[in-house]
Design goal:
234 residues, alpha/beta, seven-stranded parallel beta sheet, elongated
Length: 234
């Protein structure tokens, strides 16, 4: 006959054996293993993108209370005067930007906006377009009524289709003659000196000129034809 003390209890995985037998045992002290503390290496903090407070009021209507400034693809700041334009350097997704009539004086802040397709900086105090030389996606540019005179920075913008330069200081356009996709060139109010560059544009470009420039262009064309005819007859 098997004694009670020799009986084996069936395994019950969810209970301790001493609880089943009604035996109270002191819990063993936990074994402490001294491990060397791992040195915590702080990751460098990412530079925070901060926007000047003066700008939020101007953007509120366009971005909205839950909008993300860095995801903007279009921005219209027409007439803004009390704005710190340095924030624009962070808006890397912008494709369309209107700064007409604003207080901006330099376009250096736009150098990294390589997604820009449309840019309006008309009626501003800018004097140079040099900062746009790497905006290879730019298709339309309006720099009317500015102090711009040099177009050399635009010579490599092969996507440019529309260029508006009304009432600027531009006197020669050789830099943009070779743009392959140029469709429209507005030079009204510009004192173009060398009209030969206009002839190089060919008939595929629609050119807008002041009345006086058009008349001079026609006179020079008529004179050139007259000399050519006289040469053939002689």
């Amino acid at each position: 006959m098997v004694k009670d003390k020799d009986k084996k209890l069936p395994p019950l995985p969810f209970f301790r054996v001493d609880e089943l037998l009604g035996v109270e045992e002191e819990a063993p002290e936990p074994t402490v293993i001294n491990r060397p503390k791992r040195e915590q290496v702080e990751e460098p903090k990412k530079a925070e993108r901060r926007v000047p407070e003066t700008h939020f009021s101007a953007l509120h209507a366009q971005v909205g209370p839950h909008g993300n400034l860095w995801e903007l693809t279009e921005l219209n700041l027409v007439g803004s005067s009390e704005v710190d334009f340095s924030f624009l350097a962070l808006c890397e997704q912008l494709e369309r930007l209107v700064l007409r009539g604003t207080a901006i004086e330099s376009l250096d802040v736009l150098r990294g906006l390589t997604q820009l397709r449309y840019l309006d900086v008309s009626q501003t105090a800018i004097r140079s377009l040099d900062a746009l030389s790497e905006l290879e996606q730019l298709e339309e540019l309006d720099a009317s009524e500015t102090e711009v005179s040099d177009l050399s920075a635009l010579g490599g913008l092969h996507a440019l289709r529309v260029l508006t330069l009304r009432k600027t200081k531009v006197t020669e356009i050789d830099a943009v003659v070779g743009l392959p996709l140029l469709e429209k060139l507005d030079l009204k109010g510009c004192a173009i000196g060398d009209l030969n560059s206009l002839r190089k544009l060919g008939g595929s470009v629609r050119i807008s000129l002041s009345r006086g420039t058009v008349d001079r262009f026609r006179r020079e064309q008529a004179l050139a034809r007259k000399h050519s005819k006289a040469k053939e007859e002689s």
